[in-house]
Design a protein that fits this description.
alpha+beta, Jelly Rolls, four-stranded mixed beta sheet, 5 helices, 33% strand
Amino acid sequence: DGVTEVLAHRSHSLRDKFIEIPCSEDYDSHKRFEGCTPRKCGRGVTDAVITREEAERIRRIAERGLSLGGSDGGASILDLHSGALSLGKHFVNLYRYFGDKIQDIFTEEDFALYRDVRQRIQQRIAQVFGISSSAMYLTKPTFFSRMNSTGAKTTHDEYWHPHVDKVTYGSFDYTSLLYLSDYSEDFGGGRFVFMDADSNKTVEPRAGRVSFFTSGSENLHRVEKVQWGTRFAITISFTCDPEHGIGDPVL
């Protein structure tokens, strides 16, 4: 894998760390949106936007939702926007499948916290990249992930392949991850790895830590396989194209 450099250790509390890198050409083939499409690219990590206590509350939302289903393989997904929930080897729509029972699982406070956290992350990304927060739109997929060491049963369980978000999803311009559990304490493996030509740069998850980056080929990345324990995170994605925008989830 070449040289590995740790960008963010779990044991360090980082106020703000940002590394600027040249933008790839991925944005040239898409429509450009003034005041939003990246002119400067890079990756950042901060432990100063979301508290550990908030991350724990968010994790409990994920745990309650995922307790209704879960994949047969190592990676389970819960998307509060579309309702997609891993169930065995497939996905179901949480809202249709469970109907009114959903009211017993989630509260209005859960959704308000989710919204608040999303807004703070959006504002931090806008600030760091020098763009307008109001020119960014939440886009899909934005989802919780729960990963453990169970072997993959379908391609959806193979989360460890290197990929570029803009190539995979098209609409993504900025990607963020909020970690909801601690590397080396709650799980082993499962670090986030930026794959650069000269070396790998890793982010060790820590509850409340936000990692964010421009979604083009300048940020090719992967997640290491989880070796033990359970890793929780939420991926929150943003687009500059209002046509690809989605709303916050509502109960």
